[in-house]
Design a protein that fits this description.
Order of helices and strands: EEEHEEEEHEEHHEHEHEHEHEHEHEHE
Oligomer: single chain
CATH superfamily of the largest domain: Medium-chain alcohol dehydrogenases, catalytic domain
GO molecular function: oxidoreductase activity
Strand content: 25-35%
CATH class of the largest domain: Alpha Beta
Structural class: alpha/beta
Number of strands: 17
Number of helices: 11
Largest sheet: 7 strands, mixed
InterPro entries: ADH-like_C, ADH-like_N, GroES-like_sf, NAD(P)-bd_dom_sf, Zn-ADH-like_protein
Number of domains: 2
Helix content: 25-40%
């Protein structure tokens, strides 16, 4: 490709927890793809777990370039591209579906998942993730952002954000997919459990932007106080693990239409979901978006039956959800950057990947760490 280097620098993982920065060949643009020169790539708090393959979910078809959730500029688009054009600023999303079978899906740069079909999709289409100077992306993984609106001067109608601030839209899209799956409406009350954590914090801000009344839970009183200061509309409950006491505290704010469970694997066995679900009114909805490993759902069968509750599992999002979350942020309702309580806590070069991984695991729910290219 004219004007582009023949090679690019990338972090190449060769085994769990093992990798180095190497020069690899520049990928060639094909039908159904575009080449993006990355500006920044997110290092979320589970990035080190993925790199280390801390559980089988993260085991990759080595060697690979890891990394999910990037943003950059299109430098070349395939001949069949109709929306994506050279020069556009785009989000590079990680959730990928097979074009001929949407039931085959994986997380680009994170996990090929477990079946022969998902592994074939990964190795043939998206082997190299966004921890590199350039990435060859399927067209359907790219989302154009309005540069003037997001990055422009507020005095001229812009939001005054930086490019790395926009990385959080990838996380917002995941939780938005969960909230849309249970048809959360403006004016409804939703309990988010737990309300602390990187993805949970996104769920709180997205639900607020959608017009919902939010009750956030956590065992951490200091976090809840900080969250209340940032978002006065949020009601907070410090949970204790006592089902009856927590249920009473969660129900004190009024009728509850929905619950979003964001519990991580280490919350397996927690009773907070039981308490939250007990507050639901008739025809209430529960979305399971976290990573709990319970063998059964910790909500009494009789309660599900008598209240006609809907239990919805949700893995990632629909493509339309990503378009919609960008529009919600463009409107100014969904707050990004400092207005949303987030801070750019660390910028790293690829050669600093070990330091970047370590620091990201110790960051707070408000911190954004990223590779800068």
């Amino acid at each position: 490709m004219a004007g582009l280097p023949e090679k690019m620098r990338a972090l190449v993982a060769t085994a769990p927890g093992t990798g180095s920065v190497e020069e690899i060949p520049m990928p060639a643009v094909q039908y159904g793809s575009a080449l993006v020169k990355l500006d920044a790539s997110l290092i979320h708090n589970a990035a080190k777990q993925a790199f280390d393959a801390a559980n089988p979910f993260f085991k990759m078809p080595y060697p690979v370039v890891p990394g999910a959730h990037g943003i950059g500029r299109v430098v070349a688009a395939g001949p069949d591209a109709v929306l994506i054009k050279e020069g556009q600023l785009v989000l590079v999303a990680s959730f990928t579906r097979a074009r001929d079978d949407p039931n085959v899906q994986n997380l680009w740069g994170v996990s090929p998942l477990f079946t022969p079909q998902t592994i074939k999709l990964y190795t043939s289409l998206i082997r190299n993730g966004v921890y590199a100077e350039y990435v060859l992306s399927p067209l359907e993984n790219l989302y154009v952002v309005d540069e003037a609106r997001f990055l422009g001067d507020p005095a001229q109608g812009g939001l005054g954000l930086s490019i790395p601030d926009l990385l959080h839209l990838h996380i917002d899209a995941v939780v938005y997919g969960g909230l849309r799956s249970i048809d959360l409406k403006a004016g409804e009350r939703i309990i988010i459990t737990p309300g602390s954590g990187f993805f949970s914090m996104a769920a709180v801000t997205v639900a607020l932007a959608m017009g919902a009344d939010v009750v956030a839970t956590s065992r951490n009183a200091d976090f809840l106080a900080a969250l209340k200061k940032l978002h006065p509309r949020v009601d907070t409950v410090q949970t204790t693990g006592d089902v009856a006491a927590d249920s009473k505290a969660l129900a004190a704010f009024g009728p509850v239409e929905a619950v979003l469970d964001m519990s991580p694997p280490w919350a397996t066995g927690s009773k907070v979901l039981t308490s939250a679900a007990s507050t639901l009114r008739q025809y209430g909805r529960v979305c399971l978006l976290g990573g709990r490993m319970d063998e059964s759902i910790p909500i009494p069968h009789g309660e599900i039956l008598l209240k006609s509750l809907r239990i919805q599992g949700q893995f990632m999002y629909q493509r339309d959800d990503h378009f919609r979350i960008i529009r919600l942020a463009e409107s100014g309702l969904l707050k990004l950057g400092r207005a949303g309580g987030y801070q750019l806590a660390g910028s790293f070069g690829l050669d600093q990947f070990q330091e970047a991984y370590e620091k990201s695991t110790k960051g707070s729910s408000w911190d954004i760490f990223y590779f800068k290219f």
